[in-house]
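User: Predict the complex.
Assistant: Input components as received:
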Amino acid sequence: MTPASPEQPWPVWEVFIQPAAGDPHEHAGSVHAVDAEHALQNARDTYARRNEGVSLWVVPAAAITASTPEDMGPFFDPANDKAYRHPQFYKVPKGVKVF
Amino acid sequence: MAPAALFTALCRVGDDRLILGHRTSEWCGHAPILEEDIALANIALDLIGQATLVLQYASAVEGAGRTEDALAYFREAVEFRNAMLCELPRGDFGVTTVRQFLHGVFSVLQWDALSRSVDPTISGIAAKALKESRYHVRHAGEWVIRLGDGTAESHARTQAAVDALWPYTGELFMQPTDEADLVAGGLTADVSLLAPAWQQQVRDVLARATLQVPGDGWMHRGGRDGRHTEHLGHLLAEMQIVARSHPGAQW
Amino acid sequence: MPPSPAVAEDPVRLAEFEARIAADGSIEPKDWMPARYRSQLVRMMSQHAHSEVVGMLPEGNWITRAPSLRRKMILLAKVQDEGGHGLYIYCGTETLGVDRHDLVQQLLDGKAKYSSIFNYPTLTWADIGAIGWLVDGAAIVNQTMLAKASYGPYARAMVRICKEENFHKRQGYEIMTTLARGTPAQQAMAQESLNRWWWPSLMMFGPHDADSPNSDELKRWGIKRKSNDELRQRFVNLTIAQVKAIGLTVPDPDLAYDEATGDWKTGPIDWDEFWRVVKGDGLCNKERLDARRAAHAEGAWVREAAVAHAARRAAGD
């Protein structure tokens, strides 16, 4: 049996999971689903089978805009020489043990 | 309180989950899409886990040295107390989904009632199971709506499933007379009281799924007293074959 | 997967790419990669995903007959994990710009390979022990290596899978241990099962290095970090001690310990059998694909209904 029209695959959703309260959500993987509630349930069943988290986000994969490898230089290199953003840049007088 | 009555009442609760869990587990590897394989296995695991806890307690109440495994693997079909709805063949995904929904709504109401049992073991099991069953209803309910309000084919299949399963739903709410003392003592719940809430929730979802609620008709009964469809014997033949081939063996 | 044409790659980019891998760098989906790297990954990852999904069938065959409630739940959870792992790896493959739907179609059309081990039948309960112990044991050896693969999404899926699969091998070995210490009938069941699964497990690592056409390239690009024979040897060394510990024997009269290398050397592997099963003449090749095709065909109306309903809901009906 050949269907009249080719099957329309379910869209991909990216899944983010929060491992514990207070943690940031981390990318876990993706699932296929037809709508947001469906994606949420599939994400729960697929990525939270072992107590992996306390909260889930699902995002249509098509809605994510990512930087490209070509962006790497202009995006991230300029941060290299801004040592003053890091606490180690600053001297603390000897004798001050806890700052 | 007569232990025999409580034992039977616990078998009614546990056997529903064992047999339905077994039927659901038959899908593993054969579902419509990978995501659903995983979801159905989760549901089956929850149900078999619930059955294990309840049958463990039944075993303790009986005090005859029959473990939960002995109860699962060495009873005859006529000794099982599950509602017949649970033992019917898994059918297509429509039948499985509609059954999961119809029994799931009952299950949530029953666990909710049992979570108020004066028996702390029963209320403890019920409180845990209630959370699981709420998710089963959410999952199955969404699917009933998707299938009922999907394509012409899915609508027809799902309506056929509702029609085929409906005559087995009445049994869920027939309160066995031998549990009168247990209910009066606050140990178990009177299932007949759960019917109005079930009707309302089921009708609401079926309406959203554009499915017709079947008219009043004959409701099959017998499972709660060990009188079953022919399907249960075959299910048990498969489930029990290895255990029964090696009596006394450890696994 | 159509064979990838020989594409003339930009030599500068290719050199940069290979230098990055040599320095243990990780390649991400949007990074430049040789067409051949992409096609090799798609081939290998999709075969791996197919293997997980087809691999649900031989073990799934015993879910309804597991002899205790505990074993039933463990097995169900394990087979479910295989499905999850298939899903993770398909997801990883999709980052290379292929659609899971198309990959599944290739499997159903008989155009894609999966691990031949799943074309053997599961005949007794002991086979559930043997598969967990040997087949998952062999898979773990392989996947531990793949968790360091150069392609980030593949490596990350493998890390998650290895974490989850820790229990798979243990539950299998626990089944075999229980049987080996059980009634005489159970002991016989355990030994008979080990006899059937031993050689196919060794074949899971693939042909000898000398006969493995893809191996060099896969190693150079950091997709595989060790050769088939190295991995097989590691598996044999690990497993023989476990066999002895529970009083079973492997069906290999030539098995011998090599004092010099510390390796257990096995007798010759029957590569005729290996290639016969790979080429489709295993006992269950047809059955496994038929089962996958049936599930897919019988599920078509469900998948279509979900799409139709979502479209209607999105349109505000």
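The first helix of chain A runs from residue 36 to 47.
Let me know if you want any component modeled separately.
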